[in-house]
Amino acid sequence: MVADAEPQSGSTQPKRRRLWRGCCLGVLVAAVAGYLALFRASPLDPEAYPEVAQAVGVAIEPHPEVSFSLIQTAYTDSPQAMIFRGGSLFATHRTTHMGVLIKHPSGLVLIDGGLGSRIDEEFEAVPAWVQPMLGFEEHHPACNQLSEAGIDPDSVKILLLTHLHWDHASALRDFPQAAFWTTKAEYDYAMGDAVEPPSYLRSQYDDPALEPNWVLKELTGPAYEGYPHSLDVFGDGVLVLVPLEGHTPGALGIFLNLDQERRYFFVGDTVWSAAAIALLAEKMPLARWLADGDAARVRAQIVRLHRLQERDPRIVIVPAHDAVVHAKLPAFPAFSE
Ligand SMILES: [Zn+2]
Q1: CA distance 319 to 102
Q2: Most buried of 88, 129, 137, 319 (most Cβ within 10 A)?
Q3: 27 C-alpha to center of ligand 1: Å?
Q4: Residues lining ligand 1 (ion), CB within 5 A?
Q5: 320 C-alpha vs ligand 1 centroid, how far in Å?
Q6: Positive or negative CA dihedral for 78, 128, 34, 321?
């Protein structure tokens, strides 16, 4: 019996070794294939988007009476590779959740507003498997920051919403005296049956008490900076809304024009990093699948942003979640000069 067993043992070990090596090689090949599929740089080709019109520049009147400030309400850190294709697996991208407060002679305007005071209860609707990806730190709601700086939150006249995703509609109920500006397309979609957590959290906006606050806008103004339509909020060229559908059906882009040299373009979540515009990079596929409603339209929007930036590098394009860009803007309670 022993004599029979020894040759068996001797032939099994090389087999196991081969099997083990085969498994390791398989894992390695799968890892490389996964990396190539998910994270490898794959720049968009602008020539493939002939429908994206070349922008014509706009002359901007100076508006010294207008100033703005960026209010950070929380942040999340993640690998840059999760933010856009070609990003590094070893570099950190800081996702800031912020609002932009604008002092205009007609009143205070707030863009988005970051994570509001009820975010913890709102977050309970987010599926457990997604929560670790969306977690955040140092939460400090905009309404509290305004009060601490001696500004009554009820004095905010307009809440301008880039879109109604969970991290952009969270502050609505903190500003019950404000008019909530969005597009009809965005509102109708958010109120429809197709939406579900984590992207849209109904508790934030689907509330009869908020019905009087909604102001649903159609962008009926002329073409503007390469966008087919626009809407000038106060009719003075300071705040101009343009369609940025793709990430969501009725997403808005918002130009803030202080003078010809100081122009800011708030682009919501069309990209999560300004680097993605320069690199013509989409979000990484998993993030795109989770976050972008219409990936083909987002691609065209990235090309449009790229062309705009090429034509006028003075325009500061501000993604909603790029701490690198946000660090260059005045941080609340400081305002632009
Ligand atoms: Zn967002």
Answers
A1: 17
A2: 319
A3: 34
A4: 167, 269
A5: 6
A6: negative
